[in-house]
Amino acid sequence: MSEPRIRLGILTPSSNTVLEPVTQAMLAGLSGASAHFARFRVTEIALSPEALAQFDDSAILQAAELLADARVDVIGWSGTSGGWLGFEADRRLCQRITAITGIPATTSMLALNEVLALTGVRRLGLVTPYRDDLQARIIANYAALGVDCRAERHLGLQENFAFAEVTEATVEGMVREVAAEAPEAIAVVCTNLRGAPLVARLEAELGLPIYDSAATVVWKALHMAGSSMAGMAGWGSLFSLPAGENRPS
Fold first, then answer.
1. How many structural domains is the chain composed of?
2. What are phi and psi of 40, to 5 degrees?
3. Residues 100 and 133 in one domain
4. At 78, which CATH number?
5. Which of 21, 30, 52, 68 makes the best surface tag, with the fewest CB within 10 Å?
């Protein structure tokens, strides 16, 4: 009898070069699990009409339909656009993906919000590469949820490809600076930023939970697919958490 397989379908920004290898590395220790990717065009992260139009549902849904051909168990949007578009945009997207494909769906940001609710975090440190105005939008959206993100660092970048060029040392420095302001947890928000491989070591050093957005979507998707988390321990405390409900966020 063949071993049961879990196939995760991951929606990916076209100019992202970090999340695919990181996602594959996360799943490498999990027997029978694999990730399968579909891209749609995203080249800049800003609040201009042109930049916001990149996240029109039609392009994302076309990519989701291609993932459905691979008979994946869950479709995850490994992206953080809900942070500035509003979390309701992610919920609508998941509903539309499922309506079109019949496959349950989640996103990095909905998964992160579920983690914050599970753990009762109200003071969240926020680390991103984004512009000032976009960072302010994310902070405002979290404030509406009752989550204070005033402990934050960001780099003021706009080109999506450039996020992957940010060094691990820079990400580490930002996380340490935010940790010094005593949040209850820290989120590294951007799936093209090299945060996930640093999490376990920085958690041990700082004594704080750290949630990377490329990891949160994997965590939720695995729970939704009914997977064990055995083999995920090296990727931080996130993977020891139960999901609130094993259905779309």
1. 2
2. -140, 160
3. no
4. 3.40.50.12500
5. 21
Domain membership of residue 63 as a residue range = 6-108+214-240
> What residue has token string 């100019």?
15
Taking only the tens place, the pLDDT of each residue in 152-209 is 999 999 999 999 999 999 999 999 999 999 999 999 999 999 999 999 999 999 999 9
Give the amino acid at 91.
R
Residue type (1 letter), 245: E
Instruction: Report CA 72 to chain centroid distance, whole Å.
Output: 18
Q: Do 27 and 85 have their domain in common? A: yes
Task: Kindly state whether residues 120 and 205 are assigned to the same domain.
Answer: yes
Q: Is 97 in the same domain as 26?
A: yes
Q: What is the pLDDT of residues 82-121, one digit of tens each?
A: 999 999 999 999 999 999 999 999 999 999 999 999 999 9
Read off the pTM: 0.95
